[in-house]
Amino acid sequence: MPGPGTEPAPAPEGGYPAARLRLLQDEAAIGPGRRADLARLTDDWLAGLLARHATAAGLSGTALVAIGGYGRGELSPRSDLDLLLLHDGRADAGALAALADHLWYPVWDLGIDLDHAVRTPAQARKAAREDLKVQLGLLDARHLAGDPELTAALRTTAYADWRESAPKRLPELHDLCQERAERQGELQYLLEPELKEARGGLRDATALRAVAASWLADAPRGGLEAARTRLLDTRDALHLTTGRATDRLSLQEQDQVAGALGMLDADALLRQTYESARTISYAADVTWREVGRVLRARSVKPMLRGLLHGRTAGKGERSPLAEGVVELDGEAVLARTARPERDPVLVLRAAAAAAQAGLPLATHAIRRCATATAGRPLPVPWPAEAREQLVTLLGAGTHTVPVWEALEAEGIITRLLPDWERVRCRPQRNPVHTWTVDRHLVETAVRASDLTRRVHRPDLLLIAALLHDIGKGWPGDHSVAGETIAHDVAGRLGFGARDTAVIATLVRHHLLLIDTATRRDLDDPATVGAVSEALGSTGTLELLHALTEADALATGPAAWSAWRGGLVADLVKRVAARLAGEPGTEERGAAEPTAEQERLAIEARRTGGPVLALHARSEPPTGTGDGSEAPDREPVGVELLIAVPEQPGVLAAAAGVLALHRLTVRAADLLLLDPVDEGPVLLLSWRVAAEYGSLPRADRLRADLVRALDGSLDIPARLAERERAYARRARAVLAPPPRVSVAPGSSRTATVIEVRAQDAHGLLHRIGRALEQAGVAVRSAHISTLGANAVDAFYVTGTDGEPLADGAAHEVAAAVERALR
């Protein structure tokens, strides 16, 4: 808002506002043309204001200059105006201030944000020397009205000053870009991307223009301008959709923005946005690397260069890395004798050598290989060397990522692996996932590279890691689709029939271990039997164990923990014993209770009421995959043990009490102890964490549980009251509806009801009540929380203690689903 001072100028004539509105409402005009038209329309209006009021005041020696985005002639619907009133210093200060008011107030009156300044050329140069952002804005200075010589002189000096100071200011600009990336994240992976400030966004594209203006380095031009244009078009549509000057593409607005741009849906919009951001990010990486190389070379005084040796000598010394690949100036490049037109494996060999050496792969090397092999793909099946080089590249750990990204940016990956196109830049709506599908696949290979010492066939592990989610580019179950694709890809890579079958099996069952370990009763013989039958051999089991861990670690911090790892390891141990023919799995009964659990059960039988024990625990250190241990212990909250004589409603009551005390259930198991000579006791083992504040005392939990069981504590009413209060404070969360299903064949002694839902206050309480009202008995339960998602399995029986009939089981599942909706 304008500050106090001169009275605002009268409202501008209807011409500009009406013309502006018509232009913004013209749906056919979206794109660069409309931005340019809006800039020209605004130019004419502002030029008219300056001419009218400067003439009336008898002022000369002034010029109105557009800077920043407006200076580039790119006005989005809600863009602010960056204006500089330039003067030669001879005008009266009062008259100059009055002229500025006549310019600024009409802009404010239209509700347009304004960044403005009144300066002489000398003052503008001084401000630029003191503030990098001011200096960058002057690089886009464009004359609007007044004395053109003032503007021309300012532009000339701005560029001269920039080129002179670039060796010192470019590192400062690079630091600004990195700081912004750390604060805003990477645009190409964000579910709600910030189009301007995030890494790979419009700010980075502007920074690349500034680097080019320094004449020290230039960005790769391939696709860069098109990527920037697509982001600008998206921002235009976002401004018109929201009616606000926002650059954040929120989830609830993505479908509307996609429609405004003529796209199919929000996923298509996100994919295009990610592709644009990836192009800009890659160009930035290459450009800043070149800037660093140039600045390092300049830092060596010419008279000393001949005395220096090694990499800093400026002589371009080459160190061999592989056949046809050398290191030069900190990059992997092609050797002078390399002949990519005769060596189709060279690009893979160069990539593998670069990743193994921890070096970037030079852009010109990739492009030379791409040009030389255009139209000449690798033979099918691949030669053994090509397959080995791909495995070597994938096994390089974190250094794989930048090399892979460089290959992908230049179109090499989709040429080598055509199926990659369907997962490239594909968004993942599940917030547990950190990456797009394609980056997740590469990250899984990176994680798997740490586990190759645990398996007998590291090559199969790495290829399966790269392909495990390849089916997400196709309709239907991605594991089923992925099995077919992986079988085809492995065959094309040159793997034999047996190895190809193993890779396909790993892809088909890459979720089997984690799903079974966290959602099934491992003491049920059917559980171990189903996994054994699906995998068939201890070798495949070994590989799947490593792939499971790599996949979870690459998904995000919520997907793996030492607790989950322990469950998977226990399942693997049991399956391995079954596959090895060891007896005991079929004869294995229910898990033996621990000494503490037996003590609590005895006390519960004696008192006839619930008995509780709370233990603060930490997981043991997490293994790093190579036998060493991570330095930190993983906190897992509190273990809560409850023993209570069997009676209806125990699960719902206990879960409700925990919710009332703001304890989040991370995992839970329910076990029924039913000795022949003593009364049955339910044992509940919970892993809980306080949402905030300190943990409640065990005696308070027990007192509320007693009241909940005798009906004097109205848990549903209390939870409903809390949910209403929470809803008033919280943002609406867009989540898919809950899904409750029957898992057939999962147990011989019970029916398994599986619940997948958004984790929420009192969720387990509502599930427990629904099961109780359905008239079934919960024999065991296995509760797990993954990020914002709950995945729970309940082993239930009828009143006769037998599994439910199919019809009754589906009725129970439907009733639970209705209760959760």
From TrEMBL:
Catalyzed chemical reaction(s): [protein-PII]-L-tyrosine + UTP = [protein-PII]-uridylyl-L-tyrosine + diphosphate; [protein-PII]-uridylyl-L-tyrosine + H2O = [protein-PII]-L-tyrosine + UMP + H(+)
Domain spans labelled HD: 437-560
Sequence ranges assigned to domain ACT in this UniProt record: 752-821
Highest taxon of source: Bacteria
Record's signal peptide: none
UniProt xrefs under Pfam families: ACT, GlnD_UR_UTase, HD
Entry-linked NCBIfam families: PRK03381.1 (NF002895), UTase_glnD (TIGR01693)
Name the record gives this protein: Bifunctional uridylyltransferase/uridylyl-removing enzyme
Organism: Streptomyces decoyicus
Gene that encodes it: glnD
